[in-house]
Design a protein that fits this description.
There is one protein chain. By secondary structure, this protein is an alpha+beta fold. The protein folds into three domains: 2-80; 90-243, no CATH class; 269-378, no CATH class. The chain has helices at residues 29-38, 96-101, 104-113, 170-188, 232-243, 269-286, 288-292, 298-308, 320-335, 348-369, 373-378, and strands at residues 2-8, 11-18, 21-24, 42-51, 58-68, 71-80, 90-94, 123-132, 135-143, 159-164, 197-202, 205-212. 30% of the residues are buried.
Length: 382
């Protein structure tokens, strides 16, 4: 829980923040004036200060998603370090999942064996340009520690993704975080891939921290072995550039990710319906004329795409026509109210179809991004 106050009309309104819900409280008229101005407003910025364990305030910036009365629902916020003026030029993101994707452990061992001392100076392993919101960015994946920072260095850090900023605005930080979170989602095929920490820098020095719902202190288990043969420079640039086409809530150009689940939702009717939506979105991108043809129903669309990737059914006795019929029938019974499912966990046949749809949607996504059939076949993560 963070506490502090926001500046408003020359005064200060105290607050507490929990789960990105900021509650303002005071007995004077200032709060009434605040609610009159901002009630039911969205997407605005507040300035203030936060207080940690001491009595000295740290400058803070808040991006409010929406506000109702004295409650502000925060999209994200920044807390500056003590005695640091506002301002930053680079965002650094730490993610255990992206450490696996960028092969931190393998690169670390290779560098140590080559005699490079990563405790003295960090090294950039990959540099990847990408375009977002009409601006050219460059992502660097860096491992090692900066001995010039002394005790300010993050000693439990593994790798870090560093991106110089263009507009230096809090919305830009959130957009970048969203795109890189989606990158981890796509590569790992998992919906929950939280960042460990997001840091802001200026001229190479640490100046503050960025907080949003994509950051979590929960310990997560990675799987570095899965990415032993993953070709980072072949796959990541194209995937990152595709995901950066849409950084908001609505996507019109990038691949869909709303169908991905976690261990609790992996086999659920809700996720199955999300898979169907994702499939139809991608089919329209890849085969627009067929998608608009009323004589080409869902079953025909499914069969067409399974026939595009016959290796998905190579170990199964059922044909693409039979598989497509089963998927179509489950979708029909759910959508039209013929059956209500609490879960799919006790039906092994349905579970197989869910996993098969995941593979098909992944292949269609890679095809839409621009990969060849050979690249898609080689995109194998254990």
């Amino acid at each position: 829980m963070d506490k502090g106050f926001v500046f408003f009309r020359g005064g200060k309104i105290p607050f507490v923040i929990e789960n990105y819900r900021m509650e303002l409280f005071t007995d004077n008229r200032l709060l009434k004036d605040f609610t009159k101005k901002y009630n039911f407003k969205s997407n605005y910025i507040l300035k203030g200060q936060c207080f940690g364990s001491g009595f000295q305030g740290q400058n803070a910036l808040f991006l409010v998603e929406k506000s109702i009365g004295n409650i502000c629902y925060l999209c994200c916020y920044i807390i500056n370090m003590l005695n640091v003026e506002s301002g930053y030029d680079t965002i650094g993101l730490q993610s255990m999942f992206l450490d696996d994707v960028f092969k931190y452990k393998y690169n670390y061992l290779d560098m140590v064996r080559a005699g490079i001392n990563l405790e003295v100076e960090p090294k950039d392993v990959y540099n990847i340009p990408f375009l977002m919101n009409g601006r050219q960015y460059e992502l660097s994946y860096r491992i090692g520690h900066n001995n010039h920072l002394g005790l300010l260095e993050d000693f439990d850090k593994k790798g870090e993704l560093l991106i110089p900023l263009k507009t230096y605005k809090i919305q830009e930080c959130y957009d970048i975080s969203t795109v890189l979170y989606r990158l981890a989602m796509f590569i790992t095929s998992h919906a929950e891939v939280p960042f460990k920490r997001i840091t802001l820098y200026k001229n190479g020095g640490k100046v503050g921290w960025f907080y949003c719902s994509l950051v979590s202190e929960k310990n997560s288990i990675g799987n570095a072995v899965s990415f032993y043969e993953f070709d980072v420079m072949n796959y990541i640039p194209k995937i990152l550039n595709n995901l950066a086409l849409d950084s908001g809530n609505r996507i019109t150009k990038s691949v869909p990710l709303g169908h991905l689940g976690n261990f609790d939702t992996l086999f659920s009717p809700q996720r199955f319906m999300e898979q169907i939506v994702a499939f139809e979105y991608l089919f329209d991108k890849l085969e627009h004329k067929k998608a608009q043809d009323s004589k080409f129903p869902l079953k025909s669309e499914l069969k067409f795409m399974f026939d595009e990737f016959p290796e998905l059914l190579s170990s199964h006795k059922l044909s693409s026509d039979m598989i497509s019929e089963r998927i179509k029938e489950i979708r029909r019974t759910i959508a039209h109210g013929y059956a209500y499912y609490y879960d799919f966990k006790n039906d092994s046949n349905t579970q197989y179809l869910v996993l098969l749809l995941d593979k098909l949607i992944r292949n269609m996504s890679l095809l839409w991004i621009g990969f060849s059939k050979e690249d898609i076949t080689n995109f194998v993560i254990i």
